[in-house]
Structures are given as structure tokens and as C-alpha cells.
Amino acid sequence: MNSPPTMNYSTTPLHQAIVYCTSLELARTIYDTEYCMTREHQQELADYPPADTHECAQVIDAWVTRLKIIKSALLNFPTTSGSVTINSSPGMITVGWVAGNTAHPVTAHGQHNGRSRAAETDCLKRDNHQCIITGRTPQDGSTIEVAHIIPFDLANNPHCRDLDFWKMLDIFQGKEATDTMFAEAIDKINGLENLICLDSTIHSMFRDGRIILTPVTHNGDRIHIKSNHIGDYWLRVEYPLELGMAEFIQSTKGLSAGEVRTLYWGNGVPLTNHNRMPGHPRTLPLPSFFALRASIHSLKHESEYIPTVRDLQSYADARFTTPIDTENLQSMHRATSHTTSADPVLAASAILDDLVDSGDLARSP
């Protein structure tokens, strides 16, 4: 347990007391994730801690544990396993298996001992052996891989419920909602609901969070984690990191033969079944799985940006007698749809506006 606080926090909101008592790194975790937490947790952080010094120390210690769980879960997300590969030689569509990955049936207790060859073969059929984002196929010289949306390592065994990832979701969504999500994930981890075909380059970007795929309806409304949306939908492409013009994805998905378009931030691609013939799988990936992965990757990227000194000082409140240790703290600005724009003038203007808004740059009269 942490050493009991030496100050009286009875008139200080709990979140401020935690910021004062912990490291700058954990203070940033509160700064980045408090808005994601359940209302009960948010209310507890806004309330005053117990007046009793020992009880106050216990409350702060419990929150330090929660913050370490969040920090660990975001740092390690996602965990991944191997992938199924189609031979990239034009005209050859053979399924190859990464060494060390063998298929085993699901046990009676919901434990998956490996990936399902049958489901991944069905995924290739459903997606017509093409990348769901670029539309590329082995005939184009591409290597097509079958990828998990919810990483296999996070839900292949009932004991995975004890991983920091799901404990973090307890803090964000509540235990009951997280239990429901975990049950669905472990049930469908090797199912068509959790599998997609991606070009190997896109798979790498998807795995590392360099591209985020957010599910939206045909009207552009975001589909959330707890949604029970049924039917076709779109995937909105988002780039959390700044990219050069040549790095934006080129796609033929949904276009006529010979047409290609650049997928800028916010552009979407339709997610529909290519095969409607009898005997072909028709189950689409669950949009809620995409929504969960997108939200965690977005939060992970947010937590990697260092907030300005002014932001943290404002969060902690100037009432503390000892200021936050801001040594080596750098001022960085989070990427937005404008700062990552392909238009250099628009991007530069957005960055300058951010600097002015943050107080790091004065606006000319």
C-alpha cells in the first residue's frame, strides 16, 4: 500500500489527490481515460476522499492499482498470433499456415487450443479472397491474410478474463457489460464474426494501430460497442498518425474495373458479402468487435501523446502546495483529422491553431 498522505485531502476532489500522490505517468493515465470510465468511477473521482488518513490512503491505493491496470492494458494491446496466408503468385490461391499454428477444436469449457482452419477457409470464401479494404487479390500480386478483429490471445480461454485488458474494460464499461462482451468474444473468437481478409500491408497497419477501422451505418452514424446492428455496414478509415500523401491507402473496393481511389481520413468502404450463392458463408464480422478494437486503439494513441503542462496543471488544480513535477515534460499536440490532412496548407493552419489554443503561441493582432 502507498504511504499515507501527509496532507489533508478532505476538501480536495479525489482525482486531484491521486494526481498529487502518484507519478506523473499515472496522473496522465487519469487525464487520458477518466472520460471512458463508468459514471460510478467518475463520480468517485469527483467526490472528496475520506477524511480519515488511513481510509484515504486505502482509496488512493485502490485507484493506483486500477490506473496501473489501464496503463498495462493499453501498452500491451493488441496481443497477436499468426495468420493464414494465400500464396501471392497470380492465379494461385492456396492456403498456407504459419509455422506453429495448428487447428484444434473448441473444448467443452470454451477453450480454444488453436485457430480454426474451417472458419478461416470460410472467411476466404466470404470475402472472395480479397482484402476488405483495398479490394486487392492474389491475382494482383498481393498476399491475403485472415486476421482476427479481437486478438486471439485475448479470448481463447476462460482464464483470459483475468487479463488486464478485460479488467480495464471493467473500469470503463462495468463488470456486467464486460462479462457479456467477453462471453461473446470467447464464443466467436475463431468464428466468421471475428475474421476478415486483409492485404498483408493493411494487416500490419491494422495490427499496429496505424489504421483504425470504425464501423458506421449507411447514414454515417457510428456503431458502438454495445450495438446489436444487423446487416451490411461501412468501415470508416482513420489514420491516428500523420501520414505523407504517398502513404494513404489506395483502394478498388466497390469501384468499377480499372478505377482506384485514395482513402483519406474519414473515407469509408462498404462491408458486404461478396457471395450470395447457396453454400457460401454469409455471416459478416460483428461491427461491435470493430468498435471495441477501434476505441481501444484510439485511446492507446491518445495516451501516447504527452499533454501540455498547462493541461495537467489545470487538471490537478492550483490548490496543491506542491506543483506537479513537470521536468522533462514536452508539449505535444494530438493528431486530428485536420492536422493529418493531405492538404499541407490546411494541416499547417490546423497545427498553428492548436498551438494558439494551447497558449504555446500568441496570435498576431
Please outline what is shown here.
This protein has helices at residues 14-21, 24-33, 39-46, 53-76, 117-126, 164-173, 175-188, 200-208, 287-304, 309-316, 344-358; strands at 84-86, 95-97, 144-148, 195-199, 212-216, 233-238, 249-251, 261-263, 268-271. With 365 residues, it is of the alpha+beta class. Residues 131-213 form the HNH nuclease domain.
Descriptive report:
The chain is of the alpha+beta class. It has three domains: 1-76 and 307-324, no CATH class; 80-285, no CATH class; 333-365, no CATH class. The protein has helices spanning 14-21, 24-33, 39-46, 53-76, 117-126, 164-173, 175-188, 200-208, 287-304, 309-316, 344-358, and strands spanning 84-86, 95-97, 144-148, 195-199, 212-216, 233-238, 249-251, 261-263, 268-271. A four-stranded antiparallel β-sheet has the order 2-1-3-4. Helix 2 packs across helix 4, helix 4 (53-76) crosses helix 6 and helix 6 (164-173) crosses helix 7. It is elongated. The termini are far apart. The relative contact order is 0.13. The model is unreliable at 80-110 and 317-345 (pLDDT under 50). It comes from Tuber borchii. Residues 131-213 form the HNH nuclease domain. This is HNH nuclease domain-containing protein.
